Amino acid sequence: MSQLKAFNFQQWLQENQSKLRPPVNNAMIWEDADMMCTVVGGPNHRLDYHVDPVEEFFYQFKGNAYLNIMGEDGPYKLELKEGDVFLLPPYVPHSPQRPEADSLCLVIEPKRPAGKKDAFRWYCLNCNHLLHEVQVELVSIVNDLPPLFAAFAQDEQLRTCDACGQLHPGK
């Protein structure tokens, strides 16, 4: 084994700044580790909810953001102000929102155990009824998610609520 050494995180942020902007908004720090350490930038606005089979650690180190959480009584907002840390338990439907263009968050989570899948859900914006869920063995956030989101956005039947008839905008 070669000698271990640290690197300058601020320099890494500067070198990867273009990845932290739309349309991708995130970059993995290490590609070959057992922990997925990702920096996520703003702005973004998501209407899907992620259901992760593992814990997620959030450190909002620049700017502000929030998580929409789908609770038993419907959605609520969990604020992530600059300097905040938060540990999200597994299987909690959440939708990260980053309205500020210069916001940055470090998200750390273990790689998924074999056979464990992430789920992505869309709920009716009118009555919170579950419209659609897709499960996937997540390998790459950058490559795996866009086709899932596009399939939902392009299918009006998936986006129409069975409970109230409301059409989800799909984006």
UniProtKB/TrEMBL annotation:
State the signal peptide span: none
Domain of life (superkingdom): Bacteria
UniProt keywords (A-Z) are:
Dioxygenase, Iron, Metal-binding, Oxidoreductase, Pyridine nucleotide biosynthesis
Q: Which Pfam families does the entry link to?
A: 3-HAO (PF06052)
Q: Does the keyword Cell membrane apply?
A: no
Fetch the SUPFAM superfamilies from UniProt: RmlC-like cupins
Co-factor binding details: Binds 2 Fe(2+) ions per subunit.
Q: Please list the reactions this protein catalyses.
A: 3-hydroxyanthranilate + O2 = (2Z,4Z)-2-amino-3-carboxymuconate 6-semialdehyde
Statement: the UniProt record of this protein carries the keyword Oxidoreductase = yes
Q: What is this protein called?
A: 3-hydroxyanthranilate 3,4-dioxygenase
Report the source organism: Lacimicrobium alkaliphilum
Origin organism lineage: Bacteria, Pseudomonadati, Pseudomonadota, Gammaproteobacteria, Alteromonadales
